[in-house]
Amino acid sequence: MSEFGKIDGLGGTSTAELLKQKNKVESTGGEAFAKHLKSAINEVNEIQEKSEVAVADMATGQVKDLHQAALAIGKAETSMKLMLEIRNKALNAYKELGRTQL
Q1: What DSSP state is assigned to residue 64?
Q2: What is the number of structural domains in the chain?
Q3: Is residue 77, in this structure, part of any structural domain at all?
Q4: What are the backbone dihedrals phi and psi of residue 101, each rounded to the nearest 5 degrees, phi first?
Q5: Which one of 3, 12, 33, 54 is CB 3.0 to 4.6 Å from 69, fit for a cystine?
Q6: Can you say how many angstroms the Cα of residue 32 is from the centroid of all Cα atoms in its chain?
């Protein structure tokens, strides 16, 4: 089966796991936030690279399972949209902090 054959990651993270991660981030401070952000960016980059491989395989006719390639492309699109929304929210928060009067 190809590298796109794994569908396990599409289910997402459970609420309990998210709460554990939240508690970790709260207890370790800003450096941990930067580390998690960098990790998320790297993960999105890996997903984008897999998507590019899937598109290239589709263009050359080397793809065996069209459905899995389409899933990889869709996952890359969704992860990029999410990352852009996070960036926009972070920029808006930064601008709001700049407008705050002390």
Answers
A1: S
A2: 1
A3: yes
A4: -95, 135
A5: 54
A6: 17
